[in-house]
Model the fold of this input.
Amino acid sequence: MTDSRHSTPPPGLIVSSLDAARLEALLESPRWRDLPAAEALQDELLRAEVRPAGEMPAGVVGMHSRVECEDAETGKQYHLTLVYPHEADVATGRVSVLAPMGSALIGLSAGQHIDWPNPDGRELHLKVTAVQPPAADGAA
Done:
């Protein structure tokens, strides 16, 4: 793999109309709208293709999806669930969509990759290896 992280355009995103509406409402909330993370999520939503929920392809990261990723450099596996901020719990792998990793993952498909700055300053090169849709009770 070549080091093209700064010259490669970001991967295409697909977001369901339901997720898009809920995330827009979240971003309008006074509690979240002024955070830098909210701006990053808004940028992701602006470039996403929005589709009706019934027309979403399989294997796309949406809210409450279970996602498996792999660090392309170290092979480390990450297993997480993308959630709203009030549901986040790092200890159980529930990553907020307002966390840098969460906003970078929304709308990606299995096989796509992102470059994400780790809190320790190292750039992670994450590849989405699998996406499981949310359980029926996770759609709320």
